[in-house]
């Protein structure tokens, strides 16, 4: 049922909060090289806000769909920056694949992830090669579509997260053209995009703890 799904989603958001707290300094360090250095803080605040909103929604008796909308709104508000707005929008888009009065299947989960990535593409307007999280999200989505057989959401997401990690690491070879990094241009060469790295970290967490 939706309440069970909502409880699992809240659990995943707790794990997102924990991993972002662990990675905060490193993500900030990477963002400081070519960006403004706040990506670790943005992800830490955003996931913390989302996890707290999910707990409140659970206590209010919310189903999966409502919980994800509230978590997404809280993520954007708590994080502040570009990536927070995109992650918040992704959660809100993912919410629409869930119902407040019905359970989910492995396919629902994969569709939710797809909807979230679509939202990032639509809201951010970035394409592959712009040195953003999209450079991890697009290969991730393709790998997920290949790996998903209809009932292995967790394993498929985990294997696609490995592809996302390699793609994120490979962004070190591109010069930034979008986001705040663009004003500093070539300074980003040799350093991966922080948002691509955090995307791969969160998808690894999702794949590991979905089951
Ligand atoms: P800000 O750039 O506002 O300081 P963050 O540091 O939290 O926000 O996030 C930076 C990350 O956001 C970048 O590393 C990149 O992955 C992602 N990003 C920035 N602009 C876009 C965009 N237009 N589309 C997709 N992702 C983007
Ligand atoms: Mg930043
Ligand atoms: Mg900033």
Give a description of the structure.
This protein has one domain: Serine Threonine Protein Phosphatase 5, Tetratricopeptide repeat, CATH 1.25.40. 72% of the residues lie in helices and 0% in strands. The protein has 8 helices and no strands. Helix 1 (2-34) runs antiparallel to helix 2 and helix 2 packs parallel to helix 4. 56% of the residues are buried. The mean pLDDT is 94. One magnesium ion (MG) binds at residues 31, 35-36, 38-39, 81, 180.
Could you give a short description of this structure?
By secondary structure, the chain is an all-alpha fold. The protein is built from 8 helices and no strands.
What is the strand and helix layout of this fold?
Elements: H1 2-34, H2 39-59, H3 64-79, H4 82-95, H5 106-124, H6 134-147, H7 153-170, H8 194-209
Helix pairs in contact: 1-2, 1-3, 1-8, 2-3, 2-4, 3-4, 4-5, 5-6, 6-7, 6-8, 7-8
Bound molecules: adenosine-5'-diphosphate (ADP) and magnesium ion (2 copies).
One magnesium ion binds at residues 31, 35-36, 38-39, 81, 180.
């Amino acid at each position: 049922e939706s309440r069970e799904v909502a409880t699992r989603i809240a659990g995943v958001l707790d794990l997102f909060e924990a991993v972002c707290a662990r990675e905060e300094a490193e993500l900030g360090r990477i963002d400081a090289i070519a960006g403004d250095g706040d990506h670790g803080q943005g992800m830490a605040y955003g996931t913390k806000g989302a996890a707290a909103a999910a707990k409140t929604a659970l206590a209010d008796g919310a189903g999966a769909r409502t919980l994800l909308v509230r978590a997404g709104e809280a993520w954007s508000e708590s994080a502040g920056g570009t990536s927070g707005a995109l992650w918040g929008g992704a959660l809100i888009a993912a919410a629409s694949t869930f119902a407040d009065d019905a359970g989910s299947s492995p396919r629902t989960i994969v569709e939710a992830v797809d909807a979230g990535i679509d939202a990032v593409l639509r809201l951010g307007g970035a394409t592959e090669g712009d040195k953003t999280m999209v450079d991890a999200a697009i290969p991730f989505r393709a790998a997920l579509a290949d790996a998903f057989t209809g009932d292995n959401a967790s394993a498929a997401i985990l294997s696609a997260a490995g592809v996302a990690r390699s793609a994120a690491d490979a962004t070190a070879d591109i010069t930034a053209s979008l986001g705040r990094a663009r004003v500093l241009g070539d300074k980003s060469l040799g350093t991966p995009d922080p948002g691509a790295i955090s995307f791969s970290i969160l998808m690894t967490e999702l794949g590991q703890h979905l089951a």
